[in-house]
Design goal:
Blueprint: H1 2-10, H2 13-27, H3 31-51, E1 56-60, E2 74-79, H4 87-99, E3 104-109, E4 116-121, E5 126-132, H5 135-150, H6 152-167, H7 180-192, E6 209-213, E7 216-220, H8 238-252, E8 258-261, E9 266-269, H9 270-273, E10 287-289, H10 304-323, H11 327-331
Parallel strand pairs: 2-5, 8-10
Antiparallel strand pairs: 1-2, 3-4, 4-5, 6-7, 8-9
Helix pairs in contact: 2-6, 5-6, 6-7, 8-10
The structure holds guanosine-5'-triphosphate (GTP) and magnesium ion (MG).
């Protein structure tokens, strides 16, 4: 509403909506990419089933959550239903087998936080990371994909926010800024909180999907085809939502006390989660609860320096949308 009254004096909000939508459309991967991914996955499945006939491969991350940019890497999870397996042994054996296929740069990184095999497929040009039994990532990928189907404004907003974060250099967890996964959760939470709400809270509804992974209960309502009109009472366009998103993170979020929680569709208190002080390297300077691993704060990578960078970037974005006559250009200017 504030943006509208602003815009009424300065131009046409429809023009801004059109500009944001044009940027969004330019970020959507082409259909051929899906076919190439499928081709590589089929090759991997053929190799894997020679050694582990019971194993399965799942895609996760941006190649499967519907928030992927063109030319994203393929994130693959190999699941083997055997508690006895040693992940490093599996990855080393897998790397060995992939070496003898027509694949390049095959490397097993067994000491990484999430151990993987990396490779590049020269036929499709796709780079790929394969991890073992990281089932929670597969399930949270499904949750994000299900949310994306309810209202197209989530995909629009998240693409624009990811594009902004990549352009401004604040999508680098190794530098203390946030992962793409964290930004998508921030967008979902924001749309759960519009009035009228644009997204429901799927984990607060009667579950139609249920799985327990590493003792974590992952159940939620996944029949999203029944929720397609959910946000239709809210007529806000993308320009309004981009403005609202940055305005929230620049000026409205209470960094000292609040935790955003997609799981509950509410704001929780840092005190209730015992996230008020630094423990080890987790400082909790911006708190984003993982929807399934609820002791896991996706903001834990943010430190004293990078919280300043992040908040300044949120403020810069909010100011540009508020005052710049052509915000779509300046917002995404490389840093
Ligand atoms: P881009 O590669 O930046 O386009 O996005 P992405 O969707 O692949 O996101 P990202 O690389 O941040 O994460 C990959 C997947 O890892 C996510 O979709 C989650 O399924 C999973 N994941 C689970 N926990 C975490 C976490 O703490 N940090 C990150 N980064 N990913 C997590
Ligand atoms: Mg990724």
């Amino acid at each position: 509403r504030q943006l509208r009254s602003q815009v009424a004096c300065r131009g046409d909000i429809e023009t801004w909506n059109a500009s944001f939508l044009a940027i969004y459309e330019s970020l959507i991967p082409a259909e051929e990419e899906k076919a190439k991914q499928k081709q590589l996955l089929t090759l991997l499945e053929r190799v894997v089933c020679k050694e582990w006939p019971e194993a399965r491969l799942f895609l996760y991350g941006s190649c499967a959550n519907s928030f992927g940019f063109p030319k994203s890497d393929l994130d693959v999870c190999l699941t083997i239903d055997d508690a006895e397996i040693n992940k490093s042994d599996v990855l080393l054996r897998l790397a060995d087998m992939l070496q003898s296929e027509n694949l390049q740069n095959v490397q097993a990184l067994t000491r990484a936080r999430v151990p993987i095999v990396k490779l590049m497929d020269p036929t499709t040009g796709i780079s790929c990371d394969i991890c073992v039994n990281n089932v929670l990532a597969v399930v949270n990928t499904k949750l994000l994909r299900d949310y994306a189907q309810i209202d197209t404004r989530l995909r629009q907003l998240a693409f624009l926010v990811k594009h902004w974060a990549k352009s401004r250099g604040v999508n680098e967890t190794y530098q203390g800024t946030l992962s793409s996964y964290a930004y998508v959760l921030m967008c979902i939470h924001f749309l759960q909180h519009r009035r009228p709400a644009i997204l429901p809270c799927l984990q607060g509804m009667k579950p139609t999907y249920s799985i327990t992974v590493d003792d974590v209960d992952c159940s939620y309502f996944d029949q999203v085809e029944n929720l397609l009109g959910f946000g239709s009472h809210n007529r806000e366009g993308i320009a309004q939502l981009v403005w609202g998103f940055f305005n929230y993170w620049a000026y409205r979020h209470d960094y000292a006390n609040d935790v955003i929680s997609v799981r509950t569709g509410t704001i929780l208190s840092k005190r209730a989660k015992d996230w008020t002080r630094r423990i080890g390297n987790d400082r909790h300077l911006i708190c984003i609860e993982d929807p399934f691993e609820i002791s896991h704060d996706l903001g834990r990578v943010v430190d004293k320096r990078s919280i300043r960078v992040l908040r300044e970037e949120f403020e810069r974005a909010a100011e540009i949308i508020q005052h710049d006559p052509n915000p779509c250009v300046k917002l995404f200017e490389p840093y």
